[in-house]
């Protein structure tokens, strides 16, 4: 995909549940290989946005450039059959996805997830982290250009989180456009190349974590400012630069980012 | 759909305890219901204290009846436990060895023979309402049977005497003249005598006697019928309005098979759909299937439901057919009707599975779905078995309406029609079941709109 053509384009998405507006005119784009974090408080509309990308819900208005078949979907809770083994789960979903060579796809995902030795183990015997890796692997069976993950690291311990994010970053490095939702602003700082800040269904910010930090600090020093669509940048934070504690090469800590996030939302009356 | 079916079969193979319970429990329940329906109440144990003198006889209608024979007739509906004294009988009741005791007093023969005083039996039992009811009804019935036996003997003796009066002969009563002329022979004898009599007062008197004898002979013949009517005033003649009389044991077979098929179909279908939701897989399978004509990314809702209905229907059909064929080895069932059994079992299995998937589509967990299916099954079975006239008119209408919108009664009628040729006919019941399949599949489709 050329740089001029985004891997994913979302335009004017709105979602209403009766009187309540869960999403209000949300638009953004994601390039191939980008790790886009969707962050915001509870009820911000993160899961609704990802559900629409995955084709689980139909938006009241707006459009998504990719069909649900082109978006790999990784739900928050592992969507797997606990009575089947790792390989059986992968093979079943490969056949359901109508993957050309299900056997090869299973082998590829066992290799990629590092679960070859646990291939014949039933899912019920796996740790939460390994189950989540299988969960992600199933979302990738058909090699989708876009992967949507709903809070993928919830309920994982720090070690499991680190291994999961390493796996996801490798996917992005191979060109998959990854959109993930999270409550953990530290993950945004460490792993995301772009951050979408949602609150009450509105997109308040779209840019790099560094841009977000700068905007939030500017607001703290100079009063309210900024607004929706703070601009996009190509600077990548976290990932390669960030360490396990969340400190980046630029000297900004995850704690700073979290403080900035809270003050950003406070300034807009969202917290 | 094939992949999903293989997956479900694999899961079932790995859930052996659940599968065993799913088959054994419904079959056990069904057999218990079948036994309860096919067997009458067992004979209650009753202590019998016979205070009469051994060999005592009662004179009835000129015939002598042994009191022991009477007691045997009286107690053939209970399991009689001979007991020597009233005190021993009371002890047996208190210990629970017998339900009740019947005391035949020493003067029963004298009272029965007296023609003026009524004979009495004494019944002793505990205060338990159920036991009272059972013993009372059994003994009432036994007493009625025994009284009927006496009445028939009296009627028989009277009829013999009337016959002798009509035809003539020896009465066999001490002091009665031998070779009596029968009343029916008197009119012809009188006619011959009158033919030789000149007109006059004697002839007129003979003619009046002839008229009386003719009238008496004709009406005495009628008295036999009258006696029979008195001994049994109401005779029951049964007439089946439609269909064929279903023997209780084959109806019990049909009930047992229908109950098994319902349990398996309902529980399996409900559990299989609920499992997809419990494992959080439903959204993954059905995503993209939004909008009137959209197909899901992995499977469509219709394909998912069809797979679950097929799985549950095939499993419940196999068990139900095996039960029917197995029972057929012990109870006579018309094997030429096997194709009709198959039709009824297939449609019933599909209807139960469709109801099951609609329950499963509502529930979030397998346990909740199974509980809901279980809670629904038993009342449906019992409601369908409530006979008309046993409850109030309005209540029966309500029961009929509930039974109509669920598949158990329709399945029972279809199976009964297929096995026993009962009414309503098989085509009507099959059409009813087919309509219920469509109805519950549509409800399940609505239930699957929610993917979380």
Q: Quote the CATH topology of the domain at 8-66 and 145-267 in chain A.
A: Rossmann fold
Can you tell me the overall shape of chain B? elongated
Q: Strand percentage of chain B, roughly? A: 5-15%
Domain module tally of chain B: 3
Mean pLDDT of chain B: 80
Query: H/E element string of chain B?
Result: HHEEEHEHEHEHEEHHHHHHHHHH
Task: Give the strand tally of chain A.
Answer: 9
How much of the residues of chain A is beta strand, in percent? 15-25%
| SS content category of chain A | alpha/beta
Largest sheet of chain A: 6 strands, mixed
Major sheet description of chain B:
4 strands, mixed
Q: What is the rounded Rg of chain B?
A: 35 Å
Task: Please explain how this structure is put together.
By secondary structure, chain A is α/β, with parallel strands linked by helices. Chain A is built from eight helices and nine strands. In chain A, the strands form two sheets. A six-stranded mixed sheet of chain A has the order 5-6-7-3-8-9, with helices on both faces. A three-stranded antiparallel sheet of chain A has the order 2-1-4, covered by helices on one side. In chain A, a hairpin with a 2-residue loop joins β8 (194-199) and β9 (202-207). The longest helix of chain A has 16 residues, at 158-173. Chain A is globular. Chain A starts with 7 loop residues before the first strand and ends with a helix. In chain B, α12 packs antiparallel against α15. With 452 residues, chain B is an alpha/beta fold. Chain B has helices spanning 2-13, 16-38, 67-74, 86-95, 108-114, 129-167, 186-195, 201-231, 248-278, 282-286, 301-327, 338-362, 366-384, 393-405, 407-420, 426-447; strands at 45-50, 57-60, 63-66, 79-83, 100-104, 122-125, 168-169, 180-181. A four-stranded mixed sheet of chain B has the order 4-1-5-6, with helices on both faces. A two-stranded antiparallel ribbon of chain B has the order 2-3.
